[in-house]
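[User] At your convenience, examine this fold.
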Amino acid sequence: MPDDIPWYEADLIALDLEGTGAQDRENEAILEIALVPIVGGEPRVDQAYETLLNPGRHVPQRPWISPGLTNDALAAAPKLADVATEITSRINGRYLVGHNINVDWRLLHRHLPEAVPPGFVDTLRLARHLRPDDKNRGLSIVLERLDLTEAVTRQVPGGCPHRALWDTVAAATLLSSLLQGESLTLTELLQVSSPGPAGNRPPEPTLWD
């Protein structure tokens, strides 16, 4: 795909993971994943993919693990190996979009190295670039300041922040809002929003990967 196309014509897909927590380091497990295509600059929730994932072990109910991610629910979910082909087929060839996408990418890359997106769009970095005076850029706070929370909730009935589908739709909606009226090409978008070392390449694995 030529990088000089308008950003909204690019093959984009938003991603969010919920995991057991960074304190587990290399043993952190993915508990939930959601992927939402972005078509014409807008999230397509009707084409979303979401699933809980069975980590194969008991998960303590830590404060940051969202309600609903119970051991009973996770035990009935597929394991990552069962859905790996589905996930990689949706990611490969598409640019991954997320808020602080490096966090999700490192966890996904550790468990699913065959997922190889051509690049990344980080809405956190984009918000820093477009709104440099706004210092607090947590996803929920940015959505509130841009009056986007209700719009996200309408698209995810029954969803809530810190669940994978809600946060994925939130990142996609935030991207659309931040770029409203902006005529960026894909190359320009990657230059200001990608955590990769060269704008359009995946970030190099860290020592924690």
